[in-house]
């Protein structure tokens, strides 16, 4: 099944032009999507100007103007304002039946469909910021109104941001959010801590930055490209009685695994809270 020529030619409109929309737009442009096919709505003039300048896309202050003729909407505001955004667009959604993608943490496809007036094709997604480099990963869940064409269109859009993983059970989307949506921040926190520790051990700040960045990059590439499990790659670094063993024993004694488990559980729980608090 393929998209109709009209829908393929129609623009994609992002409602909300903040950090994550910028990452996704950057991914689309880097993939060669025509800038004239991308619109962004944001209330902030500075945000709009920066997006127009950096990507040459069409920017709007009002969603009502931007959604005109758009076959795909990407809801990219904070979860806390999404109900109001959807309710104000419900008449247009009912009249034009767009494919609606959401990137909001926690907010369910059922809530979005209800706020948009019912019977709307909704794909709830959870991308992450490496989308800006085409190196992201996105979890996707489609409601019952999304047909094969809609799924393919959502997948094509998010593939510009990197890998995609479809989730059959929406209840798992909060776990996706806690793992990969928030996940880049966990890696950045580790990098911050490693940098601080390297400086504390006497390394100049510039050198500490280079050593940490290249270590994270190299380790990520080995994870992605070797096909080996993380535990096996770790084992190969860890010489018996050597330096790595001294560090790993410190992490294990400090409860790193349980801490990571608690952190992802709390992020997952927070997704459910965002849904309930903003209904
Ligand atoms: N940041 C991330 O890593 C990820 C974020 N997400 C999700 O993406 C969404 C956006 O997050 P993020 O980009 O970080 O947030 P930002 O605050 O950076 O972006 C949201 C933007 O939407 C604007 N906005 C507010 N109200 C409206 C409106 N009525 N119409 C259009 N735009 C509006 C905001 O303006 P103002 O600032 O004035 O309110 C802001 O510029 C969230 O739902 C989040 O859960 C998903 C995956 C990863
Ligand atoms: O922190 C948040 O709520 C958003 C969702 C995933 C990443 N950032």
From TrEMBL:
Gene3D superfamilies: NAD(P)-binding Rossmann-like Domain, ProC C-terminal domain-like. Residues 170-274 form the Pyrroline-5-carboxylate reductase dimerisation domain. Pathway: Amino-acid biosynthesis; L-proline biosynthesis; L-proline from L-glutamate 5-semialdehyde: step 1/1. Pfam families: F420_oxidored (PF03807), P5CR_dimer (PF14748). Its EC number is 1.5.1.2. Keywords: Amino-acid biosynthesis, Cytoplasm, NADP, Oxidoreductase, Proline biosynthesis. It catalyses: L-proline + NAD(+) = (S)-1-pyrroline-5-carboxylate + NADH + 2 H(+); L-proline + NADP(+) = (S)-1-pyrroline-5-carboxylate + NADPH + 2 H(+). Residues 12-106 form the Pyrroline-5-carboxylate reductase catalytic N-terminal domain. PROSITE patterns: P5CR (PS00521). This is Pyrroline-5-carboxylate reductase. The keyword Coiled coil does not apply. It is an enzyme of class 1 (oxidoreductase). HAMAP family: P5C_reductase. It comes from Luteimonas terrae. NADP(+) binds at residues 15-20, 76-79.
């Amino acid at each position: 099944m393929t998209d109709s020529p009209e829908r393929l030619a129609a623009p994609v409109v992002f409602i909300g032009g903040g950090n994550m929309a910028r990452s996704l737009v950057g991914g689309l442009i880097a993939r060669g999507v025509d800038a004239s096919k991308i619109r962004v709505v944001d209330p902030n003039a500075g945000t709009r100007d920066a997006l127009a300048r950096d990507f040459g896309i069409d920017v709007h202050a009002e969603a009502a103007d931007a959604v005109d003729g758009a076959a795909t909407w990407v809801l990219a505001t904070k979860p806390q304002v999404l109900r109001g955004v959807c309710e104000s667009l419900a008449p247009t959604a009912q009249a034009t039946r767009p494919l609606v993608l959401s990137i909001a943490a926690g907010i369910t496809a059922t809530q979005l469909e209800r706020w948009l007036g019912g019977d709307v094709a909704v794909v709830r997604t959870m991308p992450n910021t490496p989308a800006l480099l085409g190196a992201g990963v996105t979890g996707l869940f489609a409601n019952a109104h999304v047909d094969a064409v809609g799924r393919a269109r959502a997948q094509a859009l998010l593939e510009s941001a990197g890998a995609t993983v479809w989730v059959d059970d929406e209840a798992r989307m909060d776990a996706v959010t806690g793992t990969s949506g928030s996940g880049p921040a966990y890696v950045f926190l580790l990098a911050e801590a490693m940098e601080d520790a390297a400086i504390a051990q006497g390394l100049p700040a510039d050198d500490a930055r280079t050593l940490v960045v290249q270590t994270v990059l190299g380790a990520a590439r080995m994870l992605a490209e070797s096909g080996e499990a993380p535990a096996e790659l770790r084992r190969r670094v860890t010489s018996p009685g050597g330096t790595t063993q001294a560090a790993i024993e410190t992490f294990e004694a400090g409860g790193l695994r349980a801490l990571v488990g608690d952190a992802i559980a709390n992020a997952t729980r927070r997704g459910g809270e965002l849904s309930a608090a903003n209904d």
